[in-house]
Amino acid sequence: MWKTAADFFWPKGGWSRAFQYMKHRVQRLPDKPERIARGVFAGVFAAFTPFYGFHFITAALIAKLIRGNILASLLATFVGNPLTYVPIVAISLETGHFILGDRRNLPPDAHEHVGGRFAQAYDSLRHNFVAIFTDDRMTWHWVSSFYYDIFLPYLVGGIIPGLIAGAIAYYLSLPVIRAYQHRRQGALQQRLKAIKSAKATKAEGK
Q: What distance separates the 2 farthest-apart alpha carbons in the chain?
């Protein structure tokens, strides 16, 4: 159990190796470079949304909407990882509160306790759902506070940096994917040419 948790924060081989693995998988996807790059855009953008636990679904929906490669979008959500969540949350919350004009309401420790606030909100929602079938009383204080202090600013504030990061990922990945596919296609043609040459030589020998 502890080993699994440790691997989540620090994968075997480190984050650099994990990134190279993801890059390798994206490059080898059997699709047009433009569609794969759009999928990468969708996955990176989804990492800037507050839909924790649903980033795969969010990325897939966005990829489908912009006609991107869905598998590439799922792989690209890797951008949102334990090493990047803190700056993503900080940028999104600061931007969101600034856009909404309520920056003064931003809790001073909001960036450090976002995970806890999400957990409290989920627990409150679960409690209220169970309360429908029991005698427990529904409470909406935590949900309301979470929505206005964290979720809404995060949702609004993540759009601009998400679009910027997604666009950068798109324009960086597109030429790399194109070059890889051209190189792979060239290697395949050389292999086929060698096979044909070998068959022709064998036929002449007969």
A: 90
23 CB neighbour count, 10 Å cutoff: 17
What are the two backbone dihedrals, phi and then psi, of residue 24, each rounded to the nearest 5 degrees? -65, -45
Which amino acid is located at 71 in the chain? L
Contact (Cβ atoms closer than 8 angstroms) between residue 12 and residue 33: no
Burial of 127 (0-12, 13-18, 19+ CB in 10 A): middle
pLDDT tens digits, 11-37: 555 546 655 656 666 767 777 889 999
**Integer CA distances (angstroms), 74 to 29, 35, 193, in order:** 12, 13, 36
User: Mutual orientation of helices 14-27 and 159-205 as an angle, nearest 10°?
Assistant: 60
CA-CA distance, 117 to 59, in Å (whole number)?
A: 23
pLDDT of residue 5: 40
- Threshold 0.70, pTM exceeds: yes
